[in-house]
Amino acid sequence: MMKDYKFIIAFSVLIFLFTGCHNTSKETAKVDAGENKHAKQMLQGIWINNIEENVVFKIHGDTIYYPDSTSIPVAFKVVGDTLILSNTEKVKYAIIKQTAHLFVFQNQYGDKISLEKSDNPEDNFSFEKKQTVALNQKQIVKRDTILTRDKDRYHLYVQVNPTTYKIIKSTYTDEGVEVGNIYYDNIVHVSVFKGANRLFSRDFHKEDFQKYIPSQFYSQCLLSDIIFDNISKDAVEFKAALPIPDTITSYIIKITISFDGTYTLSV
Q1: Per-residue pLDDT tens for 172-212?
Q2: Using one digit for the tens of pLDDT, what is the confidence trace for 134-174?
Q3: Which of 128, 148, 219, 260 lies 20 to 30 Å from 167 when distance is taken between CA atoms?
Q4: pTM: predicted TM-score of the whole model, two decimal places
């Protein structure tokens, strides 16, 4: 039985600015220098791990495709005896052995991974009609809370609005290949009413909380939700949740909304 694996990759595109035919030729020659085109040609096709009985990836042209619908295709090249994936930072894998039907490389753990080229036409179905799917399902979440304090009635309204802004988190396949999963960030609207009087109304974005999250983790976080926590005589308190998807790591930021319409953030 074929197994799909979730992947994630920090993905970037190299952009070359051309200024005339002469410069184009020079830059192209520079990029192509040392590239092993014969090795790249032998990699074309679908590669499987016979031990795990799963399709690992398909190579077509200059791109590697993965069977999991959440994974991101990545550009690659072969320079000498090294496979180079063009992520935000180049990821390199030493090629141990390569033939037309065998590909052995060393992953980042130092393990030797042996793949065989598939000759089964049914393996093509692993890549047909698949689009990148967000692991959160783009659902609008609406939440109303009615509170009474000192005979005053408060209405709290929260709406989680999905966006098309992509969050990409790095992970590795069982073969030790770095790939990427796509998630989508949210914008969360918060309103506070006292009776019919609106005290506060604002959209919160992930970047509002940036200074409270370690820089090395910020890019992989998303704004998941804002949840009511407490009401005092002067303010309403919420908690903003900014998790790193598919991990137990989540940053919780306190939002204190005063009844004068101002707000403060704290950890």
Answers
A1: 666 666 666 778 889 999 999 998 899 999 999 999 999 99
A2: 345 467 788 899 988 888 899 999 999 888 877 776 666 66
A3: 128
A4: 0.51
